[in-house]
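Hmm, what's this shape?
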Amino acid sequence: MKLSHTPAESLDKFIEVPLLPNEEFRTQVKQAIDIICTFLKERCFQCAPHRVRVSKVVKGGSSGKGTTLRGRSDADLIVFLTNLTSFREQLERRGEFIEEIRRQLETCQRQETFKVKFEVRKQQWDNPRALSFVLRSPKLDQAVEFDVLPAFDALGQLTKGYRPDPQIYIQLIQECENQRKEGEFSPCFTELQRDFLKNRPPKLKSLIRLVKHWYQLCKEHENNLPPQYALELLTVYAWEQGSAKPEFSTAQGFRTVLELILKHQDLCIYWKKYYDTENSFIRQYLKRQLAKPRPVILDPADPTGNVAGREPQRWQLLAQEVTVWLRYSCCKNLNGMPVSTWNVPVRTPDFFM
């Protein structure tokens, strides 16, 4: 059954059948990721003209956060290199490391080192953030898409409950403002982005999957929409403010997210899990960020990244989609009345402006 025709009280079942990855799918994607991680750590830079050392490879994206949709196998792999010693070096030198990874993948392809095939996508600009490629294997039912991003290891080894030294964020803010590259270095904070979502209740992750599935349906006939990550964070925010319980009504959560999209012109959301207002430099920067035109949804791990984007017209297009979807069965009770929503403010409650 299509989402639009699914009764609100059946949304949990809808998520379980077409959206949740099964164990076989998960295992296959994990195997593909392990192949690439091993390649990046042990083989990729052996023949590089200068000694290159990989400190760690971190899995990001939906695979790292545990919000993968069945049938959509993609993975972000962040390669932290000891050769990159600052945010600026990452910006200036990432292209050479991406080129080396591309060369080595193509060498492996020619030499048939792996029983897999790589299809490296052409770069569209001179200094790309990521190398995008597709991995195919007889053991995989479908191809797995990868984005590999070289990054400066700003955080080092993380421990449970880790909170970055404010100095890291001060350096980040200064570099972003100097280069006018806000949000450019978010890959450096992938582990925090992943941990922000990873240990959330399973039902919240299922709600995120539902919102992502709905978003993909909207993209089928309107491609110019806000970033998907903004919708994921908006879903977390709606749950935190409206329920914050492991068990809740999926229909209520879904409709609450849709109603918040209608209020996009007022959205101003941020979290203080990893950065806060105790440091005066960071506080002043946050004030400037939160004073920007709405919507504002700050990346919980990177205060320079407004993941809502800088084009409010994209939210207007998504809001138009919402007005159509609110008439469908998935947003109504059996008696035809709208599903009730959580009482969620459009601004983070402890807003300090």
User: Anything to note?
Assistant: The mean pLDDT is 91. The beta strands are 54-60, 74-81, 117-120, 131-136, 144-152, 268-269, 296-299, 302-306.
